[in-house]
Amino acid sequence: MYALEVTRLHKHYGKHRALDGVDLSVRSGEVYGLLGPNGAGKSTVLKTVLGLQRPNEGSIKLFGRPFDRTQLVAVGALIETPGLWPQLDALTHLRIHAKLRGVPAEWIADALAAVRLTEVRNRRVRALSLGMRWRLGIAIALLARPKLLLLDEPTNGLDPVGIREMRGIIRSLAADGTTILLSSHQLAEIAQVCDRVAVLVAGKTRYEGTLQGLAGDGDIEEGFFRILDAGGARIR
Ligand SMILES: Nc1ncnc2c1ncn2[C@@H]1O[C@H](COP(=O)(O)OP(=O)(O)OP(=O)(O)O)[C@@H](O)[C@H]1O
């Protein structure tokens, strides 16, 4: 059973083909990594899956059915930076989002615990570390108990402690049954948490499979660069 299937997805901005044939198949319960250099199209894929961008061609299936917006209640996402108010505390953020989305207030405690922010729930955002702000963004995404969670570069800008913390959170969410699709341009990050990966180069899927398959006879990094070189990777 697939949580998400993306087939021959195209997104053009004028003459620029941001997505030029993307195929992905994310199995229910797995942590799936979307890898690729800057400009490869990772964020555009996530935005298209969320209905924030309309594709020019291709299809998206969520939980085995063709995409329609009503399925998005089961999808949580943190794309780019979380929109937070510096003067409000973490708990107030979650209360506001719960109210707006009709989520029972009792679910707030679970979202806080899932991202390990229970202790600092009364701290204002301006006094939270960058890692804690990211985790609050994830807590907001988790409020409605999504089956599929999309995370765009969840370790961007974090120090090693923040990165380790994020990794632990991703692993425990997956252990609890949430399917996770995360994008990164940092191979080492993906290698530590993902079951399978796709490598996008210039808007095309150039590899999909396990990390062992990506490594081939060498190491994962060599396999990754081989695919980038074969796909004509360049900064776009
Ligand atoms: N709204 C837009 N208008 C025009 N071009 C865009 C727009 N959004 C993205 N692009 C272009 O589409 C391509 C893919 O961008 P995207 O942000 O999806 O890449 P990415 O893989 O997420 O990169 P990064 O790792 O830098 O975040 C890039 O060349 C980008 O400049």
Automatic annotation (TrEMBL):
Residue ranges that the Swiss-Prot or TrEMBL entry lists as coiled coil: none
Domain named ABC transporter: residues: 4-227
Keywords: ATP-binding, Nucleotide-binding, Transport
Keyword ATP-binding: yes
GO MF entries: ATP binding
KW Translocase (keyword) present: no
InterPro entries: AAA+_ATPase (IPR003593), ABC_transporter-like_ATP-bd (IPR003439), P-loop_NTPase (IPR027417)
SUPFAM superfamilies in alphabetical order: P-loop containing nucleoside triphosphate hydrolases (SSF52540)
Family assignment from sequence similarity: Belongs to the ABC transporter superfamily.
The protein, known as: ABC transporter ATP-binding protein
Protein's organism: Nocardia suismassiliense
